[in-house]
Design goal:
The complex is a heterodimer of chains A (about 325) and B (about 375). Chain A contains 13 helices and twelve strands. Chain A has about 325 residues and is an alpha/beta fold. In chain A, the strands form two sheets. Chain A has an eight-stranded mixed sheet with strand order 6-7-8-3-9-10-12-11, sandwiched between helices. Chain B has helices at about 15-20, 25-35, 40-55, 60, 175-210, 215-230, 230-240, 245-270, 275-285, 290-325, 335-345, 350-380, and strands at about 80-85, 90-95, 100, 110, 115-120, 125-130, 130-135, 145, 155-160. In chain B, helix 3 packs across helix 5 (about 175-210), helix 9 (about 275-285) crosses helix 10 (about 290-325) and helix 11 (about 335-345) packs antiparallel against helix 12 (about 350-380). The chains are: A alpha/beta (about 325), B alpha+beta (about 375). Bound molecules: adenosine-5'-triphosphate and magnesium ion (MG).
Amino acid sequence: MSAASDQEVLRVENLTKHFPAGHGKMVHAVDGVSFSIQRGKTLGLVGESGCGKSSCARTIIRIYEPTSGRIFLEGEEISHLTPKQMLPHRRKMQMIFQDPYASLNARMTVQDIVAEPLRAHHICASRGEEREMVIDMLARVGLNQDHAGRYAHEFSGGQRQRVGIARALILHPELVICDEPISALDVSIQAQVVNMLRAFQEEQGLTYLFIAHDLSMVRYVSDDVGVMYLGQLVEKCEADEIYSHPLHPYTQGLLSSVPIPDPVAARQKESVGLEGDLPSPIAPPAGCRFHTRCPYATERCKQEVPELKEAGPGHFVACHAVNS
Amino acid sequence: MQAASKWERVASGIGEADRLYSKPRSFAGDVWFRFRHKPTALLGLIIIAVLILFAVVGPFITPYGYDDQNTKFANIPAVLQVYPAPDGHWLYITKALKVVEVDEQGNLVQQLRKGKDDAANKVTVYPYGDGLTVTLDYSQTPAAIQDAEGNRISETKRLWNKTYLLGTDHLGRDILSRLMYGTRISLMVAFIAALVNMVIGIFYGGIAGYLGGRTDSIMMRIVDIISTIPLTLYVILIKVCLDDGLLSIIIALSSVYWVDMARVVRGQVLSLKNQEFVMAAQTIGSSTRTILTRHLIPNAMGPILVTVTMLIPSAIFMEAFMSFIGIGIAPPLASLGTMCNDATDALRTNPYQLFLPAIVICLIMFAFNFVGDGLRDALDPKLKK
Ligand SMILES: Nc1ncnc2c1ncn2[C@@H]1O[C@H](COP(=O)(O)OP(=O)(O)OP(=O)(O)O)[C@@H](O)[C@H]1O
Ligand SMILES: [Mg+2]
């Protein structure tokens, strides 16, 4: 057990996050999500917009207080630590944000932005040392010394995202949560940024929780993939497996919306597609939350909540049709 | 690079692309750039600078204090309509039918001592110098000086009052000097009130907005309560305790005006704190203090500055108003408000005594409003052309 938890960088058990929505109602942003990530691996988390991916990430990194459930970082439980107790753990866990414009303070220079983690954890003894570390880090993300004195608004989206990555990696964290780090970028730059993230992973043995709302990029970066729907994990398995054998109807629907480079294959592929909109997370449907949009929904799906069960080796899925 | 090679391929390199960047401009530089391209804003700034100079340096230059009075020269305006005197000097007749001797340059020399009064003919004879006399004829309005033959002199001349450049008030005090002291008090009240309000407002609003929830509700209800009590009441109450007009006005303004600032800052912080850069700071582990002082407040600085520049004219007006109705600055201290008040009694005969301080009040308010407007436009990137 101890060997296993040594390998395990992040473990999440039954994580739940509800936001008050007024009038005593709750937004069920995250509802009983469990997973773990091994050292040096990447878990891709996919799902439509609004299914709770960001909320899940922010709860794990403890910007949001979890409603219930437990979070273990390198075997230590961090779910209910006070901000002060949390501080040493923050060094081990960093986040890269989706919006390269909103995630950098417009009133700070790149030098100050990247040095902020160093200052928060009192790592450098002097300003000179700090500056050296920042410039070293900037060089590693493909920026140079001249960029350090500039303000974020003078950069392109890709360059900004590099600044964000530099800020996240300067503390040499174990776990990096990437919340759609590339979805706001140009396609040409997306590849650059993803390759850079992969290079860092190989170099430092980083562990990633990689969030995206489409499956195409996730396949390239992830070892495992988890599919989220309305705050719940509905399918989880190896990245290649999910493309070759998607079991959950929702995953199949998501995959059918991925453009296929080969037109012949595209025509052959039966199109399931996703119909309808995401139901409100304030009053999620009873039973299987996907039943309102599922082409295979039965009476049982409307009443009974499916459990995440192993349907094949290492392939977990929460669907009555698959599991029975 | 030569012109011939203009269309040739340039060797690639990161440095080349970076050099094409325009000079980096900080946020403040950007704001200043936009601000200075707005004429009214710049005008406002210049007026404020001149007024500050006027109020700070002026009192050192003028020979009169704010309470130096010479009742002999009371109610004398800036521009004098003068009659020739027998010896080449000039004579000015005040509204109270006093005759004042003025030299060629316009310096006031003396008020003539009354001689024989001939009530039947409505003339008064004043001895003037060595055996000469001057006759004031008040049989018609306006009163006039008679020449040697006893005819009213119709030929008059306008002279600028060199002794009191802007004239004197009803007690013979120099209006220009009093304006300097009055402006000084106005600006002082304004800046102290602005500073205090900024400090209290930013901290109070920042904490309420950042902590949110219950703390926020309680703190904002306190703000609501404070803002419903009328300001005049505070000033009167504080003045009863302190017996010092200036201090009580400053304390009253400081204890009330910050509520607007607190509301603005709270609103800003509320909207900023959910932005990703604040979350980034939280995930990094930055302290609440760092987040407030390095992230939230600098980003809220625009609206804060605009609120301050808009608050200043209102504080200035409040001080003038309080002094005008007599619960502010106590005489003989000069404030623009007390000067206006003093002038109201003689408004019909000496309107300049009211207009001069009123013009200064207007100037100050205009200037600060212009600057506030300019700042708001300069700080709003959406209006960026
Ligand atoms: N701070 C909050 N307060 C209240 N509700 C929230 C909050 N944050 C998120 N939600 C709600 O939780 C649900 C999940 O939002 P979340 O941002 O986690 O989705 P997401 O999967 O990241 O979507 P996207 O792909 O658009 O980023 C949404 O319905 C959202 O409205
Ligand atoms: Mg999101």
